[in-house]
Amino acid sequence: QDTIRVGITQNNVGVDSYQTTYEQAFIEAAEADPAVEAVVLDAGGDVARQIGQMRDLIQQDVDVIVIWPTNGQAVVPVVRQAHQAGIPVVVTNSQIAEAGFDFIASFSGPNNITQGQYSAQMMCEALNGEGQIVQISGQPGYTTAIERQKGFEDELAASCPGVEILETQPGDWNREKSQRVMENFLTKYDDIDGVYSGDDNMGVGALNAAKAAGRDGIAFIGATNFAVGYEAMGRGEYWGSVYQSPVEDAKNALATAKAVAQGEDVPFLNYFDTPKITQSNMDEFSKPVF
Amino acid sequence: MTKLDIQSGQAAPRLGVPDRDALRETLQKQGILIAFALFLVGFSLMSDRFASWDNVSTVFRQVSIIGTMALGVTVVVITGNLDLSVGSLLSFATVLVVDLHDQIGPAPAILVMFAATLLIGCVNGLLVGYGRLNSLIVTLGMLSAIQGLTLIYSGGQNVDIADQEGTWFAVFGRGFLLGLAVPTLIFLGLAVAFHVMLTRTSFGRRVFAVGGNPTASAFSGVRRARVVFSAYVLSAFTTACAAVILGSRVMGSQNNVGQGYELLVLSGVILGGASLLGGSGSIPKTVIGVLILGFIQNGLLLMGYPYYAQWLVTWVVIILAVWLDVASKRGAFFTRTS
Amino acid sequence: MSRVAHHTAEELADLKHRAPLLRLDGVTKTFPGVKALDDVSFDVRHGEVHALLGENGAGKSTLMKVLAGVHRANSGTIHLNGEPVEVNSPLEAKARGIVLVHQELSLAPELSVAENIFLGSLPTKRFGLVSWKRLNAAATHILDRLGVKFESYDRVGDLSIANQQMVEIARALVFTPKVVVFDEPTASLTDAEKVVLFDVIAGLKKEGTGIVYISHRMDEIFTLSDRITVLRDGQTRGTLNTRDTDEDGVTRLMIGRSLDKSARKAAPEPGPVALEVKGLSCGDLFRDISFSLRRGEVVGMYGLVGAGRTEIAETIFGLRAKDGGEIRIDGAPVDISGPPDAIRHGVALAPESRKEQGLVLGMNCRDNMSLSQLDAVSRGGWLDRGAEQAIYDEYAGRLSLKAPSWRTPVRNLSGGNQQKVVLGKWLGVKPRVLIVDEPTRGIDVGSKSEIHALIRRLAAEGIAVLVISSEMPEVLAVSDRILALYHGRLAREFAAADVTEDALVQAISGL
Amino acid sequence: MADTLASLRRYMVIPPIWLFLLACVAFFSVLTDDFLAPGNFTNILIQTSTIGIIALGMTVVMINGNIDLSVGAVVALAASLSVGLQDQLGTLPAVVVGLGSGVALGLLNGMIVWKTGVDAFIVTLGAMIGVRGLVFIYTGEQSFFAMDFAYSDFGMSTIAGLPTLAAIFLVFAAIMHWVMTATVHGRNAYAVGGNREAAEHAGVRVGRHMVINFMLVGFCAALAGVTLSTQMGASTPNLGRDYELWTITAVVLGGTKLAGGAGSILGTLGGVLTIGVLRNGMNLMQVPAFYVLVVMGVILIAVLFIDARVNRRGAGELRL
Ligand SMILES: Nc1ncnc2c1ncn2[C@@H]1O[C@H](COP(=O)(O)OP(=O)(O)OP(=O)(O)O)[C@@H](O)[C@H]1O
Ligand SMILES: Nc1ncnc2c1ncn2[C@@H]1O[C@H](COP(=O)(O)OP(=O)(O)OP(=O)(O)O)[C@@H](O)[C@H]1O
Ligand SMILES: [Mg+2]
Ligand SMILES: [Mg+2]
C-alpha cells in the first residue's frame, strides 16, 4: 500500500470565502503530494448529512478521516464509530466535544478561545483599558461563534475590567445583518468606544454603519482577517483582527492526517498559529485572498 | 282569495346609511393598521430612543431591501402563486452587480445584473404561467438552482467593491436626498408605483381577477399565463432593485446574503393581509406588514432583550397583529367554528 | 332515532289546526350595509310543504340559514314543537332534526358519494374505523330511493352538477328529519330528476315532516306547496293558502305588480348572418353541428343536460379545440384561439356556472362587470373609473340588480343577483354575437321576464343572440328559432311560429 | 364485500410520483455502480426517514387545508429535550418529554388557528421563529450530547436487517395511510380541506379536527427530532433548519394540494423517496457541491413538468 487515502467531510463550503479557500487549498495540497489520495465531501452545514458522509467514508475504509464538524457534539457518536472501525479521525478547524476526545487522533486548527482572548487584549489596548463596547457575535449555536465569544468575554473580564460590554447581539456571519445590528446600537447608545465582532466580515458591516452615521473614534476589532478588513485597516478605519489563513489551516490538517495515517506521533492539540494583526504590524502579513 | 295574515302597511325603507357604513367598512379593514399603531405606542413607551426621527429613518432604511422585494412578491401572491426564489435571487443579483462593478463599471454592471435577474424571473414566469406548474415547487427548485449558479459564478468567494468612496454606485444604499435616505425613497417610490399599477391599471385588475378565480378570468378574456408571467418578472425586477440597494449599502456581498429572505418577505406580505389562495392583498398593507417586521426587530433590539427572547416576542406579535386584523373584519375576537 | 309515526289522512288534515311544528318569530338579521331580514315571522306545520317566495335578494336563503344555524339572527325566536330552541350552529340544527339542502352546492369533491351523504356521521366500527359495508349499504339504500345512475362509491368531484345536487338532496334523507328546507333544489336538475325529488318530498310529507320549499318556478310551487309565504325586502308580505291563490296573485305580492306576459314583440326583419357554424365537431361531445345566427335574431338552443349545448358554445368561444367544421363571423371564416380572440371578434359567452366560470367572488360588483371589457374601459392601460361606473350603473339598473353598493363583493350577493352580475358583464360587451348559457338560472320571475325583454331588445339593436336553456317556457318565450339537440347532434330546427311543445320534447328525446 | 373493495380501490391508486421514482432509480442504477447495493437502499431509507416522518404529519395537515412551518424548530426542541434531559430523567422519560413537547406545541398552534381564525401559515410562521427561541433558551445555545451511547446505538441498530429508523418510518407510514383511508378522522380531513363550510354544516367538528391534526404533525416532527438525535447521539439548537420547506416540497411532489382537500400518504412516501434518491444518487455520482444545488432544482422542476405532460387531460379539458 503506497498511497494514503484521506477522506474529508467539510462543514459548509461556499457559505463564506474562508471555507471555500480552505477546500481549494486542501485539494491542491493533496494533489501536490503523490503519497496522498483525497476524497473530498461537503456536508452543506447539515449535521445529518455529515453523519451520512462519515458513514460512507467508514464504508469505503479510507485510511484516515478529516472532519470539520458541523457541530461539535453531534458528530461524537459517528466519530466513535470510525474509531471502533479502526480509522483514525483528525478534527479540523473547530473542536468536537470533550466526550469525543477519546476517539480522535488529533485536532488541527486554530484555537478559537485564544482568538477571543487576543481580541480582548487588543480591545483593551485600543481603549487604554477604559470604555464601553458592543459585541456582534456569529451565528448562534455554532461552535466557533460560541468559543470566540467566550474567550473574548472571559479575558476581558479577567484582564481589563475597565472595559464594559454594553450589549451582545448576533450578526449571523452576515455583513448586512451586522450592519443593521450596529445601526440599532448606534441609535441606542450615544457612547460606543469599541466594537468586537466575531469575524471581519461582520466587523466591516459594523464599520459601514458607523461611517454612515458619522460616528468617529470607535475601535473596531474583529477575527479571521478578511481582505476587506485588511484594507480597512490600511485606511486606518479598522483597529485590529486575528490573522487566520485557511491555506495554513488546510495544509496543517492534511499534514496531521498524513502523519496520523503513517503512525507518527502527533500532538493531540495541533493548533496552528493565528497571530494578532493590527494597523501597526499589518505589513508583516500578506493581504488575505478572501 | 283568502289572505291569512298579510302584514299591513308599506315595507319600511331599508336601513341604508351608506356613508357611515362605508366609513365603518373602511375602519374595519384597518385592523392591521391599528395593530401597527399599538406596537409603535408600546415600543415608544418602553424605549425613549424608539420614537426619534433618527431611529424611524433607520428602520425605514433597514426595511427597504425586504420591503422592495415584498412589492413584487405581493403581485405574485395576489395572482395566487408563491415566489420562494427571491431570497437566492437576491444573493445572485447582489453578487453579480458587486462583482461586475469593478470589472465593467457601475452602470454596465447594473444593466447586466437587471438583464440576468429579469431573465430568471422570465424562467419562473414561463414555468408557472405558461407551463402551469405548481409555483411552490418551481420556485423552490429555482431557489436551489440559483443558489448553485451564484456559487458557481463566484467560486464560493465573497465579492467586494474595492473603491468604496469613489463610486457613484454608493448613492443607492448610502445616499440621501432631501434629508431622506435613498433606499427609503426607492422603496416608497416603487411602493407608490406598484400601488397605482395594482389599483388604477387594467393589468392590476387582471392580477386580482386571475388570483380570485382563474377560470372565470379566462372566460372573461384575461390571459392568465401572461398575467402570471408578468407577475414573476415584476418580482424579479423588485428583487434586482433590492440587490442594488443591498450591494451599495454593504459594498460587497456574500453568496448567501439573501438566505431566508423568501420567508421573511412572504411574512411581510401575508402580515399585510394578502391571502396565499390569491385574489387579495394590497401594497400599502404589505408596506405596513414589512414595517411591523422591521419595527419589531428594531424595538426589541433597542430594549436590549437577548435575541432568543426577541424571537419569542416576534412570535406573539406576529400572531397578535394578524389576529387583530381578522378579528376586526369578523367583528368578534373568536371564531364560531365548533 | 325514533321514527315519526305515520299519520292517517284525517290526522293530517287535523294537524293543520294544531300548533305548528316550527315557528320563527320576529327574526331580524343585518349584514354590513343590508338589513336582510326585518322582523320576519313564519311557521311550518307537520306534513306541510310551505313555499317561500320572493325576489332575488329578498332574504329567503338568509332566513333558512338562520333556521339551520349557519347565521345567527340579531333578534327573533325559534320554536320547535312549541318549545323555544336555540340554534347556534349547523350541528345543533342537525341534532334538532332541521336539515337544509343548500342553494349552493356544499360537497367535498375528493370524497365518495356515500361519504358525502354521511359526512359528519360516518358509521364506524371499532377504533373510529369507517364501516364501509354499512356506509355503502345505507347510501345505496338512499340512492335507490332517488333512482340515480351513479354509485355510492363514485367520487363526487367526477359527477355532473345535477348529480351533485342529487347527492345534496340525498343528505336530507339520512335521518328522519323534522324539518327539511330545500333551497332552489331544481335549479340544475333535469325533469327526470325533478320527478324523483317530488316523490321524495311527497314521502317526507306523508311521514309528517315539515318542508320548506324555495323556488322561482311557479309551476313547482303550485304543484307542491300547501301554503306560500312571500318575502319582500326582508319582510313578510303575507302567507297564503296555495289553493286560494294563483300565479298572478303571488307575483303581485312579490313584485308589487302583475307580469306583462306579452313582452314578446313582433320580430323585426332579421339582418345578415352574423355567425355561421358548419359541420362543427368535437370528439364525442358533439358532431356535425350546422346553424346560423342573424343579426337581430334570437335563437334558442334546447336539449337535455349532457346534450352538448354548453360544449358547442365553448367551442365557438374558443375554449375548446374543434376537430372538424368551420365557424364564420360576418361571412369570414375564423379560427378563434380563446376568449380574448373571441371577444375581439365580437363574440360573447355568458357561462352557465356562475361561481366557477362567471364571477370572481371576492371582487366587487362593478369590477366583475367590467372584467370582460377591460380594454374598452381603459386607455393605454389606465382604467377609466367613470366608464366602469357607467357600465355598472346601466346594467345594474336594467337588470334591477339588488346590491348594497357597487363595492359589495359578489360573494355577499344572493344567488339570483350573482347571476345578474354575470349577465350584466356580458351584455355590457355589446357584442356582435351573444351566447347566453342558462341565463336565468335562479332568477326570480319578475327579473326573468325583464331579462327576456332585455334579450329581445338587444337583438333589436342588431345583436345575434343564442340562448341556451333547459327551460322550455324560456326557450319558447324568447326565441325566433329553436334548435333542438339530441346527443350531440342537431335533431331539428323550428321556427318560433310553428313549434309545439310536443314536437320539441320529441326532438330532444331523439324520437 | 364487493362494495367495500370498490370503495377501497380508489384509495389505493398509485400516485404518479412513483413512476418518476422508478425512473430515477433506473437512471442511477445504470449510471453508478453502488446505487443498487443493498446497503445503499437502507442508507437512503435512513436518510429520508427524518423528513419522511415529518412529511406524514404534514400531509394530513395540508390535506385538511392548513400548513405547519414550525416543524423544523420542533425537531430541534424535541431533540434537545430528549437528549438534554437524559441526565436528570433517564433516557425513556426524556424521550417522552421530547415527544410531548411536539404534541403540546401542535396543540398550541391548533388552538390558535381554531380560536383566532388566523391563517395557519402565519400562526406556524410565528411558531417557527418563537419555538427556535425556546430551543435557545432551553439549551443556552449549547449542543447536548447523549452520555448514554446506547441512545446513539439505537439509531444505528437494525431489526431483521432493516435499520430501526427506516422501520419506524415505514411502519408509521403504513399507520398513517390506514388512518387517512379507513378512519373517520382521516376521511374528515378530506372533507374539511375540500369544503370546510360543507364539513362544518354537516356537523364535523372542524376546529377540534384541525387541532388534532396539528398535534399529529407536532408529534411527527418531535418523533423525527428524536430519531435524528439518536442518529447523532446528540442534539444541536440549529437542528432542522429548512426542514419545513423540504417537507412541504416532498408532500406537494407527492400530489397533495397546497389548497387542501386532496392528497395521499402513498404519494408523500413517493415524494420523500424521490428527493432522497436524487440526493443520494448525486452523491454517488460525485456531483460537485455547487452543481448539486443546480441539478436538484432543475430535477424538481423537471419532475413537475413531466408530471404535467403525463397527466394532461384529454379532449374534455377546456383551453383556459
Ligand atoms: N354573507 C353575507 N354578507 C353580506 N350580505 C349578505 C350575505 N348573505 C346575504 N346577504 C345579503 O342579504 C340579502 C338577502 O340575501 P338572500 O341570499 O337571503 O336572498 P334570497 O332571497 O335567497 O335570493 P335569491 O333568490 O337570489 O337566492 C341580499 O341583499 C344579500 O346581498
Ligand atoms: N351522464 C353524465 N355523467 C357525468 N357527467 C355528465 C353526464 N352528462 C353530462 N355530464 C357533464 O355535465 C356537464 C353538463 O353537460 P353538457 O354541458 O354536456 O350539457 P348541456 O347540453 O350543456 O346541458 P346543460 O347546459 O343543461 O348542463 C358537463 O360537464 C358534462 O361533462
Ligand atoms: Mg337564495
Ligand atoms: Mg350546459
TrEMBL record, chain B:
The protein's name in its UniProt record? Monosaccharide ABC transporter membrane protein, CUT2 family
* Cellular component GO terms held in the UniProt record: plasma membrane
Q: Which residues form the signal peptide?
A: none
The portions of this protein that span the membrane are 32-51, 63-82, 109-129, 136-156, 176-198, 227-248, 260-279, 286-305, 311-328
Statement: the UniProt record of this protein carries the keyword Cell inner membrane = yes
Which InterPro entries does this UniProt record tie to the protein?
A: ABC_transp_permease
Write out the entry's keywords from A to Z. Cell inner membrane, Cell membrane, Membrane, Transmembrane, Transmembrane helix, Transport
Electron transport is among the record's keywords: no
PANTHER family linked: ABC TRANSPORTER PERMEASE PROTEIN YPHD-RELATED, ABC TRANSPORTER PERMEASE PROTEIN YPHD-RELATED-RELATED
List locations, semicolon-separated: Cell membrane
Short name of one Pfam family for this protein? BPD_transp_2
Q: Which GO terms describe its molecular function?
A: transmembrane transporter activity
Membrane topology label: Multi-pass membrane protein
From TrEMBL, chain C:
This protein's GO cellular component annotations are:
plasma membrane
Q: Which Pfam families match?
A: ABC_tran
Sorted keywords for this record are: ATP-binding, Cell membrane, Membrane, Nucleotide-binding, Repeat, Sugar transport, Translocase, Transport
Compartments where found:
Cell membrane
Membrane topology qualifier? Peripheral membrane protein
Pinpoint the ABC transporter domain residues: 22-258, 254-511
Is Nucleotide-binding found in the keyword set? yes
A GO MF label: ATP hydrolysis activity
Which PANTHER family does the record cross-reference, listed alphabetically? CARBOHYDRATE TRANSPORT ATP-BINDING PROTEIN MG119-RELATED (PTHR43790), D-ALLOSE IMPORT ATP-BINDING PROTEIN ALSA-RELATED (PTHR43790:SF3)
- The name on file for this protein is Monosaccharide ABC transporter ATP-binding protein, CUT2 family
Top-level taxon of the source organism? Bacteria
Known SUPFAM superfamilies for this protein? P-loop containing nucleoside triphosphate hydrolases
Q: Which InterPro entries match?
A: AAA+_ATPase, ABC_carbohydrate_import_ATPase, ABC_transporter-like_ATP-bd, ABC_transporter-like_CS, P-loop_NTPase
UniProtKB/TrEMBL annotation, chain D:
> Cell inner membrane: is it a keyword of this entry?
yes
InterPro entries of this UniProt entry? ABC_transp_permease
Protein name, UniProt field: Monosaccharide ABC transporter membrane protein, CUT2 family
Any one Gene Ontology MF annotation carried by this entry is:
transmembrane transporter activity
TM spans, by residue? 12-32, 44-62, 69-86, 92-114, 121-139, 159-180, 211-233, 245-278, 290-310
Q: How does it sit in the membrane?
A: Multi-pass membrane protein
Species classification? Bacteria, Pseudomonadati, Pseudomonadota, Alphaproteobacteria, Rhodobacterales
Residue ranges annotated as coiled coil are: none
Compartments in which it is found: Cell membrane
* GO cellular component, as recorded: plasma membrane
Q: Which UniProt keywords apply?
A: Cell inner membrane, Cell membrane, Membrane, Transmembrane, Transmembrane helix, Transport
This protein's source sits in the domain of life called: Bacteria
